[in-house]
Amino acid sequence: MVIQRVIPRVALLINHSTTLNKAYNSRNVVLRLISTSQCNFAERYFTKKHEWVEVEGKIGIVGISDYAQSALGDVVYAQLPDVDSVLSQKDECGALESVKAASELYSPVSGRVVEKNESVEETPSLINTSCYDKGWLFKVELTNDKEITALMNESQYKEFLKSDEHH
């Protein structure tokens, strides 16, 4: 995102620089700047219990929100659902423990667990340092993609966090 702001500024500086313009124009050099745009990532959906799911095709990647990991504190133990477990939406499917609290983990969607993040089981602190990237918890093959409509998108979740309802 920073690069997107810097490239146009550099282009303006180069175009307004008389020394560079004379050097480039005298040699008929064409200056091309490559711009990057933000990739369209899969949208993340949230539950009222602060789990999230990011859907890529028929696979949902599940984790807990930044708010949840912050509220838990330093996570020291993660019990994740086993591969091939069949889950229904809102099923309790694991637990997270921190130095100050323990919390059940609920599945935001229905499906069959196809992978669990063994790195998180070995190093639970990944949830605190990278809850949306390296700290994901498990992947599930969705059996009912319509369940996503019952979840909150990112902006709805941010509004939910501002309300008293989430406490």
Automatic annotation (TrEMBL):
The modification N6-lipoyllysine is found at residue 100. Its main location: mitochondrion. GO terms for biological process: glycine decarboxylation via glycine cleavage system; protein lipoylation. Keywords: Lipoyl, Mitochondrion, Transit peptide. The keyword Mitochondrion applies. Residues 59-141 form the Lipoyl-binding domain. It is found in: Mitochondrion. Coiled coil: none annotated. InterPro entries: 2-oxoA_DH_lipoyl-BS, Biotin_lipoyl, GCV_H, GCV_H/Fam206, GCV_H_sub, Single_hybrid_motif. PROSITE patterns: BIOTINYL_LIPOYL, LIPOYL. CDD domains: GCS_H. The keyword Transit peptide applies. Its cofactor is (R)-lipoate. Binds 1 lipoyl cofactor covalently. PANTHER family: GLYCINE CLEAVAGE SYSTEM H PROTEIN, GLYCINE CLEAVAGE SYSTEM H PROTEIN-RELATED. HAMAP family: GcvH. NCBIfam families: gcvH, PRK01202.1. The glycine cleavage system is composed of four proteins: P, T, L and H. Belongs to the GcvH family. The H protein shuttles the methylamine group of glycine from the P protein to the T protein. This is Glycine cleavage system H protein.
